[in-house]
Amino acid sequence: MLGTYKKGHAISFLNHNGQAVSEVRDIANILGAKFSKISSNESYPPVFAAYKQKEERKALNFKTSTCKEYNAPFTVQELTAALNKTRPTSSGPDRIHCNMLKNLSEKSLNVILFLFNRIWTEQCFPALWCKAVVVPIPKPGKDPHNPSHYRPIALTSCLCKLMERIVNTRLVYFLEETGHLSKFQSGFRCTRGTVDNALMLETAVRDAFVTKKHLVSIFFDMDKAYDRAWRYGISRDLYKMGLRGNLPLFMKEFLGRRTFNVRVGDVLSDDFPQYEGVPQGSVLSVILFVIKVNEIVQQLPQYVHGSLYVDDFQIHCAGVNMSFIERQLQTAITAITNWCDKNGFVLSAQKTNCVHFCKLRGMHPHPEIFLNGTSISMVSEAKFLGIILDEKLSFPPHILNLKHYGCTIYGSARKSLLQTLDTIHHQGLRLSSGAFRTSPVQSLYIINKEPALELRRHKIALKYYFKIKSNSEHPMHNKILQPAFGTFYASKKSYIPSFGHRMRSVIQTLNTQNVEIEPKEDGLPPWRGFNIRTIDGFYKLPKSLTSDNVYRQLFYYHRQRHKDFNSAFTDGSKTANHVGSAVVFNNFTVTEKLHEYCTVFTAEVYAILLALNVIGTSQDKKWII
């Protein structure tokens, strides 16, 4: 009922210091000591350990007499929004489950809100919230008797995670609004995702191909990055960003005094400290890690570009001369390692890979690049954020694995390769519909109400294209349609265009090149407590099962109940070639024609906007739409 993990993974014994340990509590303590050591000062390089000791002598004063909006008490709207986003995860040491919180009464939620605000304003963090129960999970394909081959899964307080979610929303809003996050960081950000970084790299590679250049990309691996994130460094970064008061003080308390127990079966280990790192299983861990790693992209020299997805770090450099590329990338690695030496991160030379993207004929050497004195492995393909990129960017390894993910990027592959997906897609449609093997493909699409894969890829790519164009802060916004490369692609038909130029031809085919794209609107601050309340007595009555008389009676009842309000009736409609919105008031009507590619939903919402624009200029204050 509590969602706790009772049985656990059966660990028969562990090999420790040359001996087999089978006692369950001893196994739990061995794993606890192993997990704790990863976050200790012993795991840091000597250079950083000395720097860390020196820097931590400098006190950070987060107290302020200035009233900051992000330090305001939490509102019931913020609590409700956080509760709605909460998933039914396992309970932590306090044994309070998320489902318990979701079923609380309004009065009980007000008590929790009062508790959260006391913690927020008095900076008194509950001791139980600093504890975690860790369940060891064996790494797949590894020896289960080696203590180093287990991954810790932490269970923390659901009540704490609920408060974290509120704080996280405020912190993310502050970071986005003030522009502190690097535009090349796509991890866990609104309207951003893994495809952003993969698309940036694909565009750079396509542009290098058409201009007859080499492009070398390095895919880094950060060793135990979350467990080694420097806590004082995170607080220092928050201080540099100008955060003062309740929010950074909460972060400081949240990161301090962390302990955990390892659970094997029903047995708990002794208490072990987590010296450094962000707490696993916590809502705030990701954004705090993002803050700590945020400046790594700024270390790159002029001709080297890179991207981040939380800790997935990639850099690349293009050029005609391989010696030039080698020098630039080696300079970049030197700058990155110097930054890591001052921030506690360690780049694994064994797990870091390098791909030389090139379509030039003839003999040309691969670059030789070193990381911490070790030569980086040169591979013919690399898996980057779930997409397998080969050195010719033809995508056979990815497509032959039947991946639908990343079609925005691999949609540029040759048609004969993409048709292998079509064959499997058609077979699935025949099985689901019971159609004959001889049934025409077009009839399969109609029967199953499924579009062709090519159309689906175009739809996904167009949505992504418009999303980029609507966001001026997106790193691809100004690069997506560079005229210089458009000339190259037009004159060299044998080269596959980059994403933006591929989409331009699709847009011209659909005759949508003159569509104006609305810029992305910034959201309202979460602490303002803005909440839209709606009155809808019809949503529980399906149209197919409800007679017109029932709707009419409910409407009359609704009008009588709100007879003191002025009325505004809105509607949106769409036909084959026309889309329009309208709002009807007592003595006049407002109509507007929309672009023919707008959806019915857009028309309906735009009609409400028309009504609100009129109501905003009216002297009357009581309106119902």
TrEMBL record:
InterPro entries: DNA/RNA_pol_sf (IPR043502), RdDP_mobile_element (IPR052560), RNaseH-like_sf (IPR012337), RNaseH_sf (IPR036397), RT_dom (IPR000477). It holds the Pfam family RVT_1. GO terms for cellular component: DNA polymerase complex. Residues 118-389 form the Reverse transcriptase domain. Signal peptide: none annotated. Keywords: Nucleotidyltransferase, RNA-directed DNA polymerase, Transferase. Transmembrane segments: none annotated. CDD domains: RT_nLTR_like. PROSITE patterns: RT_POL. It comes from the Eukaryota. GO terms for molecular function: nucleic acid binding; RNA-directed DNA polymerase activity. This is RNA-directed DNA polymerase from mobile element jockey. It comes from Araneus ventricosus (Orbweaver spider). The lineage of its organism: Eukaryota, Metazoa, Ecdysozoa, Arthropoda, Chelicerata. The gene is pol_1431.
